[in-house]
Amino acid sequence: MRHILILMAGLAVATAPLQAPAAAQVAKPTLNSAAPRAEQAWSRPAAQGGAGAGFMRLVNATARPDALVGAETGIARETQIHRTTVTDGVASMQRQAAASVPAGGQLVFAPGGYHLMFMGLKRPLKAGERFPVTLVFSSGARVKAEFVVAVAPPAAAGHDHHAH
Ligand SMILES: [Cu+2]
């Protein structure tokens, strides 16, 4: 018993200096992102009863890889993850079970590639409107995103110098 008590006392001393910096990090609001986030989410105008396509940039600032496995919105009967590919000059799209977002990386949903497909729109999507979508990740995270209806992608905010 004496050995155990001595060991525990030693652990308490050893871990005390490590706990202080960890607590300080949690207090920073910039580290309050335990899940990927969606930026520049937009969707093209579409007719009621038809299908709409949603685009966005998924940014994973966390230290672990994640994957989008689903999306939910009240404006459509069903929302699927799709990916457009071109074979022999013919574009076609396939449903995807998941779309991986690497740790510390990002995945872009854009025309000609990954997109959300809003199947069976319950109302038309008109330019300028906004609607909420809940993104579901394999980690279990549920992330809310607001899509704006537009004919072209919204201007990149900040310091994005990539050509589109
Ligand atoms: Cu599609």
What's a concise summary of this model?
Helices cover 16% and strands 44% of the residues. The protein is an alpha+beta fold and 164 residues long. It has 2 domains: 28 residues; 113 residues, PCu(A)C copper chaperone (Immunoglobulin-like).
CATH topology assignment of the largest domain: Immunoglobulin-like
CA distance, first residue to last residue: 67 Å
* Low-confidence blocks of residues: 1-32, 159-164
**Distinct ligands, ions and cofactors found in the model:** copper (II) ion
CATH superfamily of the largest domain: PCu(A)C copper chaperone
Q: Taking all residues together, what is the mean pLDDT? A: 83
Assembly status: single chain
Given the helix and strand composition, which structural class is it? alpha+beta
The tally of structural domains comes to 2
CATH class of the largest domain: Mainly Beta
**How large is the radius of gyration?**
22 Å
The main β sheet shows up as: 10 strands, mixed
Instruction: Supply the number of helical segments.
Output: 1
**What is the correct CATH architecture of the largest domain?**
Sandwich
Rough outline: globular
Order of helices and strands: HEEEEEEEEEE
